[in-house]
Specification:
Shape: globular
Order of helices and strands: EHEHEHEHEHEEHEEEE
Oligomer: single chain
Radius of gyration: 17 Å
Structural class: alpha/beta
Distance between the termini: 18 Å
Strand order of the largest sheet: 3-2-1-4-5-6-7-11
Mean pLDDT: 96
Helix content: 25-40%
CATH superfamily of the largest domain: Formyl transferase, N-terminal domain
Strand content: 25-35%
Low-confidence stretches: none
Bound molecules: glycinamide ribonucleotide
Length: 219
Amino acid sequence: MGNSKQVSAAILISGNGTNLQAFIDAARDGSLDLRIAVVVSNRPDAYGLVRARDAGIATECVRNEDYPERAAFDTALADTLAKYAPGLLILAGFMRILTGRFVRRFEGKILNIHPALLPKFPGLNTHQRVIDAGETLHGSTVHFVTEDLDAGPRILQGRVPVLADDTASRLSARVQAVEHKIYPQAAALFASGRLEFKDGESWLDGARLDEPVQYAGEL
Ligand code: GAR
């Protein structure tokens, strides 16, 4: 548990924060050796802020409405984050696109989770699009964030079957259950130094990941 080399993370959210909750729970039960220094939302009504406060974690809000321009928003966000000097940024349902300048500033230190088996289905409304496309397999992907939206090097994927009578909300619930397992695990790999971003790629245990690791339990 807590040691002087412990990685400190900022978790960025926009909504419910069930992934944030998975991080809070994993940090609490010791399966994730990471200090959550702050939770930042771009929406003041995000329920994840309540989860953070209940867990005694500092919260900040950088409101979309206060910074309609992307560059100004990202400057305010970077200034807010600087107070906490995080070694890792975890985007957990953070629904605002970051500028290249911001991403470069934190290069190799930003993780995102996207609710699809990237490179399939980047963008929004993935669950409905997967059903409409007649896919039989869906899931979620943890990846490093680069300037290309939903296209940074992939790290870890969790798969779920698409069932014949699935609705977007039922499918989403199953995908989220997998997310709550894979996202803290990916962060744990980063926090322990096993996972790195180098030369624009993901590296695990010193080897370049040409394909993301497929989740099948503990890593
Ligand atoms: C998650 O399912 C995550 O994959 C998705 O938002 C949800 C947030 O849920 N992220 C994106 O769509 C990013 N483009 P949560 O607030 O309950 O963690």
